[in-house]
Amino acid sequence: MTDSHSQQNSAQAKALADELQLLINEYDPVISDWAFRRIVISELILKLRAQLHQYESSLEILRTANHAMRETLEVVRASLAWRPIETAPSRPLDKNGYGPTILIWVESAVGIGFWDDDFGQFFVEASDRHPQPTHWRPLPEPPAPATDAAGGQHG
User: Fold this and answer.
1) pLDDT value of residue 9
2) CA gap 99, 104 in Å, rounded
3) Is the predicted pLDDT of residue 35 greater than 60, yes or no?
């Protein structure tokens, strides 16, 4: 529910409540049209209850959506978290005997690494040293191809 929709519903409910209050303030048991006023007041009460029900339904939808978004955020956070190197994937191996490419945390730095089955350890690409990594996480998805003004992709 948008903010303007909520404001509109609130304004309608206020107008109905004001109209109801006006009718109640004008109550005089001697007035012969009191029965008619009672019918009008009853109808206004029904409209207010219907708006209240609609508002509560909208609130429930928003609460459900909020809960789902929070759960999704937790899943995303968990997927981006650094994990102990002992849990890193070493399979499946490619034709060279290397495991999947992953991000590796080594000595306060991030590198791209992989499992080398011949050596039985993880290696950091483009490194002549063989430090022991402590954590890993999956590589992020690559960026989407850029599009030019004509709608063509490049890059």
Assistant:
1) 73
2) 13
3) yes
